[in-house]
Write a structure and sequence with these properties.
It is built from 24 helices and seven strands. It is an alpha/beta fold. The protein has three domains: about 15-20 and about 290-375, Orthogonal Bundle (Helicase, Ruva Protein, domain 3); about 45-140 and about 205-285, P-loop containing nucleotide triphosphate hydrolases (Rossmann fold, 3-Layer(aba) Sandwich), CATH 3.40.50.300; about 380-439. Mean pLDDT is about 85; it is low at about 155-170, about 185-190 and about 435-439.
Length: about 450
């Protein structure tokens, strides 16, 4: 099938390697260059955008959860949503967006609502700084002084002269310095951070009020409703995710603004119909579906994945059909597809290989298989074989482990069904040769 030329696609492996950085979501002009929309009706983010429009008009403080597999493109979809808000007149003029990645501010190996609370403060001030908007320093000083008073004995005895250094600063700089010093927002905060959290949690309603006062002042300053978008919470460890969305859930749902949070796809199974989720509207970013429930090909999404690659890398660098083969191998996981293409470019550049063909594909496939095989044991293969046979995965513990690791992929087609990542299927077949016959 003839495809239109894409002006920003690379024509050399060196350029192609740069265009296929799978670690970062698309943002800014990349959304215009490389973004490919999912099939109409398969992503509820268009519905979410309409919900934001209606909520803004009515002054609602609705909270939204965006779920989906790691690597399925959630962050890119959220960045696209934020960009659409900036170009859609009714939303642009009535909605002030504060959007940031939790991983840029927090140690995602150890997070609770106190960290998120202070990340919101930093996110608001970062956004105002970008727009060169002057904001009263009184609120930030109230938050800083509140921290100081709450942990005064602890910080003075533990930090000594360090707290004097923090005291010599003002505004957001002082707050960020103090957060680092006492461990609230420090990466790897350790014992010091845990002790401060314990003290702060004793006055949780006051902390929420401080953040809400900040959001109310932001609403008054801009004359707009506030939308808070916190990405990368889907990357939280299991215990931290349960703590943030269940035990600390009221903090996130009682903020005086609309908010969008990403959440692990496996959280839906861990909490099920927990009351913690009742106050959220949930929106799923579906996988690109390269095969149907019965194994037959799905050409629509496959074509979209091929276009996604060709927008980055010119078709002249591939032999015909190899991208389709990679897309099927990745099971619709966008990150894996882009990584396979980047690794192929690296192979061709390194070994002076003229084109991405079966030889390059075989090399990158072995790398992906090794990534999975390192931690899958005999017991895993028995469980995975059952999931492959039944196309179901409803045990909460299994769902968390295998969905988060992308061993098992969730697809939607009216309802939900599950299957192994194609690479895991290959490994299962190698270890149990009759696996396919018994499926």
């Amino acid at each position: 099938m003839a495809r239109p030329p894409f002006p920003h696609s690379a024509h050399t492996f060196e350029e192609a390697y740069a265009n296929t950085d799978y670690r970062l979501p698309l943002r800014d002009e990349q959304l215009d260059y490389f973004y490919v929309a999912r099939a109409s009706g398969t992503s509820r983010l268009e519905v979410l955008k309409q919900a934001l429009s209606l909520g803004t008009a009515k002054g609602l403080d609705t909270k939204f959860l965006v779920t989906g597999h790691l690597g399925c493109g959630k962050s890119t979809e959220i960045n696209r949503l934020v960009k659409d808000i900036a170009t859609q007149e009714d939303l642009r003029e009535n909605l002030f967006v504060v959007s940031y990645s939790a991983s840029d501010l927090l140690d995602l190996q150890d997070v609770d609502y106190t960290d998120i609370a202070f990340s919101i403060v930093a996110g608001v001030y970062d956004r105002l700084h970008e727009l060169d908007i002057t904001f009263s320093s009184d609120t930030i000083e109230k938050i800083t002084e509140w921290i100081s008073m709450e942990v005064e004995t602890f910080t003075s005895t533990t930090l000594g002269a360090e707290i004097e250094l923090a005291g010599g600063q003002v505004g957001i700089g002082r707050l960020l310095n103090m957060m680092n010093l006492i461990g609230i927002n420090i990466r790897g905060g350790g014992t010091r951070g845990k002790e401060v959290r314990r003290l702060v949690k004793k006055r949780a309603p006051e902390l929420r009020d401080l953040v809400n006062n900040l959001l109310e002042e932001l609403r008054e300053l801009t004359g707009m409703s506030v939308l808070l978008v916190i990405d990368d919470l889907d990357k939280l460890r299991k215990d931290d995710a349960v703590r943030v969305f269940r035990e600390d859930g009221p903090f996130l749902t009682l903020l005086n603004c609309m908010a969008i949070y990403t959440a692990p796809v496996s959280m839906m199974y861990q909490l099920g119909e927990s009351p913690s989720f009742e106050k959220y509207q949930r929106y799923a970013v579906p996988m690109f579906k390269v095969a149907s429930h019965n194994g037959s090909a799905e050409s629509g999404d496959l074509d979209r994945l091929v276009e996604m690659v060709y927008r980055r890398v010119s078709p002249e660098l591939f032999v015909p059909g190899i991208i389709e083969q990679m897309a099927v191998t990745c099971g619709g996981v966008v990150r894996h597809l882009i990584k396979m293409v980047q690794d192929s470019c690296l192979y061709c550049q390194t070994f002076q290989h003229p084109v991405i063909d079966a030889e390059a594909y075989s090399w990158v496939l072995e790398r992906l298989k090794q990534d999975y095989s390192r931690w899958l044991g005999r017991a895993d293969y028995e469980i995975l074989k059952r999931i492959h046979q039944t196309k179901s995965c409803h045990d909460a513990e299994e769902a968390w482990e295998y969905l988060q690791s992308l061993c098992v992929l969730e697809y939607s087609n009216g309802g939900y069904w599950y299957d192994l990542h194609p690479v895991v299927q290959m490994l299962l077949g190698e270890r149990t040769p009759n696996a396919e016959e018994s499926a």
